[in-house]
Amino acid sequence: MKRRTPPDRLSEPGAADTPPPRRHTLFWRMFANYFLLILIPVIVASVLAQVLVVRIIEKDAERFNQVVMNRFSEQTDAELQSLKTSMINILSTSRLRSVLLAPMSSSPESQLLPELLHSLREQLQQLESDELVEKAYYYFVHQDLMIDAETYTNKAYYFRSRYPLDLNRRHQLEAELSGKKMMDFMDSPDTVTASMSYPFNTAAPEVYLLVDVKRDKLEERIHIPESWVTGTAIVDDTAQMIARTGLTEQDRLALQQRIRTDGFASQFTISDKMGLSFMASGFNESWHYISMVDLGTLMKPVHITRLICWLFLLFFLIVGALASYYLSRRLYRPIREIKDGLKLHHAPNEEGRYEGNEFDVIKRYSQFIMTENKELYQMVNGMLPIVQEQFFTKILLGQYRDALSIEYYAKEIEFAYSHKAARTVLCISFHYERSFYDATSESAKIFLLTELKDKIHRLAPGMVWICQTRPDLMACVVQHDHIAEGYPERIAEQIRHVFLEYGVYYKATIGIGRTVHAIEELHQSYEHALAMLNYRGLHSTVEICGSLPSRELQQWDSFLSVQEVQRIHNQCKTREYDKLLQSVLDLLEEGKRKDAAAVQMKYLLADVLNTWIRAVESERNELNVPYYSGLFERMNRCMTWDELTQCFQDIHGFLFRKPASSSRSQQFMEILEYIHEHYDQELSIEHFAGMMNMSIGHFSRTFKEEVGEKYVEYIAKYRLMKAKQFLLETDLKIDEIAEKVGYWGRNSLIRAFRRYEGITPAKYRSSHQ
């Protein structure tokens, strides 16, 4: 890119005496033309040689290397995918959710059901049988518990004795175990660890399955025995190496630096003798297989052919340069004499201002001016409406109250106005319909609001200014004649009809301020229009509050008396919920009869709603702040008496709903019937708690109240009852009976028998036979 000379240096004395650089004169242009004319056949020949010989050899070498990369990457992907599938199958078939929900105490042995832990260890043993797996274990996030194939214990003992880690490495491991993981690899100086979270589709997992991969086995899988391959590695998008073989520490650092700088390319060189070949992993989209190639061995024929081409080209460069220089010098001599003669006809500050010959200077300079002016014009035109609206907003808010400062700023932003004119501010407070607000994107809301502003502008072109002082407040300034009586009211009525067309999106109130005759007084009209909004009633969705209010503000008491608050609390305690609703309906009916203002009515109703909520909190000991806040928001969005009535009926129905105690016993009877029919399947407490819309703890407590036993003990005793029948009435083996009654193996059934019967199933069968 050519560097432009700064304008202040162009007019310096002596600038005309400085000759333009020789490399930009017509002489060098002619030299370049002759030079290219001579070199075109040579360049074409070199290019053909590169395409027909060099590229063919390079492509063959790259293709062969690609075939080798494909073979070992597919093999490695298949084994890693098999390991991932095994981890998913283990987590899917495990009963980790039951372990997580098991009652907790001071030690793991007394906390969890032994049969669940035994089954988990058996699964981990099966996983460790994989050739790539060195060790597999479970890490519980919210419990002080670790489980591996041999034992289960707390985290401190496990990382101190079973799986020794220093404190820094343990903190690093625990810091990395956060968020959803689907076989993410965590690298360390000693091991490569694959992690998978459970439950799968949650950002806050409760258990992680960690598998230490045998580094030597993984390196053996990615090793390429070809002579030109000096090393291989698996690298993720962050340049972190999952595994490597044959790479020195210097190679590893250089490789990571190049990936962070240039990303992953199909192939590029690190040095003159070494190259890299990348291949995306089919197992993990963020992985790439990389092989470091000895280019000297792989590309030796290419280097020889390329050297010959470069020598051929260099020879003709020297010959062509000498011939071009001789021809250009002979042709440029008369042109230079003409150019020197024309210097006297130019102003001193024009000579040498720009680089290149005269034609280039004029063409470049004119194009530059046209481009700069066009961009600046477009930028200013695009920003002017925004700047003008901000300026006008500051006038309405009273930040500019001096006529001279307003006039000065208006000239800077090309804001034309008449200083002395009658103007009236209309404040439009609008609210979105809730259904529209929740289901519509921000872009759609902006487009709809822009369309609304455009329609208001067209009511009186050139006579209406609009700006938005708050997200829910729009100020509309109407300019009119001094003798035009009622003109602001007519504009307000037209705006009202515009908002009625958009009734499915907005509800609005239009406040009319008093008329002022100077632009610096507009803030007074704006403040008056804001005050008029407080006179809004509740009889229509779009209402106009004139400068002379037709509604007097009643002397309402905006707070409930102590007696009223105590009455509400007493009615809640005696379950007289209908009287609570009726008192609010009576209050609304009184306000409607007196035509009360919306703002005063909502102040009083807000105090009523607050008293209701405090009464419910004290009775149920439940606090749902987000929901209660939404109740106040819904009440404030109500624009009519009917909406307020419906709002409080809905709120009353939620806060003071009567519990259906009779149906709860029936529901628990159905749950017991389901347990009796499906005792051989997994019976998750989460499923039944979700069916009854209860938390797990609440369901467990309610189950014991209704049935008389804990949920876990009831299921265990019912299964043992069925197991006894099989033991006495059939000749089935212990393993078969355990499977039929819902246990994972004979050991689980034996432990349950010992816990509840005091003997083993075999002794029970022999003693009763």
Cα shape:
flat
Number of domains: 4
Main sheet characteristics: 6 strands, antiparallel
Number of helical elements: 29
Percent strand equals 5-15%
Strand arrangement across the biggest beta sheet: 3-2-1-6-5-4
| Radius of gyration from the alpha-carbon trace, in angstroms | 42 Å
Which residue ranges are poorly predicted, with pLDDT under 50 across at least 5 consecutive positions? 1-23, 345-354
What structural category characterises the helix and strand content?
alpha+beta
Question: How many beta strands in the DSSP annotation?
Answer: 17
Average pLDDT across residues?
77
Query: What is the first-to-last residue Cα distance?
Result: 102 Å
Helix coverage percent of residues?
Answer: 55-70%
Walk me through what this model shows.
With 769 residues, this protein is α+β, with helices and mostly antiparallel strands. The chain folds into four domains: 63-298, no CATH class; 382-545, 2-Layer Sandwich (Alpha-Beta Plaits); 562-655, no CATH class; 661-768, Arc Repressor Mutant, subunit A (Orthogonal Bundle). The chain has 29 helices and 17 strands. The strands form three sheets. A six-stranded antiparallel sheet has the order 3-2-1-6-5-4. Strands 12, 13, 14, 15, 16 and 17 form a six-stranded mixed sheet that branches. A hairpin with a 4-residue loop joins strand 7 (229-236) and strand 8 (241-245). Helix 5 (114-128) packs antiparallel against helix 28 (746-756). The longest helix has 68 residues, at 26-93. Mean pLDDT is 77; it is low at 1-23 and 345-354.
